[in-house]
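Sat 14:20. Reprocessing the chain from the morning session after the first attempt stalled halfway. Input below, unchanged.
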Amino acid sequence: MKPWLLRKSICIIVAILVAAPLLSQTAVWKADVSAASVKFTTSAPFGKVTGSLTGLQIYLSFDESNPGSGSISASVDPKTVDTGISLRNTHLREKEEFFNTSKYPLIAFKSLVIKKGASGYVADGNLTIKAVTRYISIPFTCTKTDKKAVFKGQFTIDANDYNVGKGARPVTVYFEIPASQ
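Finished this time. Tokens:
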């Protein structure tokens, strides 16, 4: 092989190797955390309890055409729990039986894999509450327009699995996160 042809071939190979990761990068979305909502419902001895959490921090890398290349890392601040009843909020925030936010300041999720689901996508990963980590699957949808999207979903956990509440019941979490590129 002629030296100039070898150099040219090497340059082309190097250019492809350098450009390939840049072309296949998954889109990173910037969440509008002030417009995002994280809500929950559960049942209690005297009826249904609804509430919300704020303080969302999220890293969201997602591409609809290649969901497996994405990742999600999110947390909420349990000190922000709000059920509309201040005494209940104080108990949820301060009591060891519930969130004990001075000892456990974050509720966090980290995806391990994102894949296509039956009606959208599923993020499989680890949810940590009160230093207890469990593997869960979170189904969600992505409604995209131009460079904006809304990520929306819900999942149910057993609060007992995370040492939250005595004889606790299932808790359903709903989220809606607007984001832009």
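Strands lie at 28-31, 37-44, 47-61, 71-82, 107-117, 120-129, 132-145, 148-158, 170-180.
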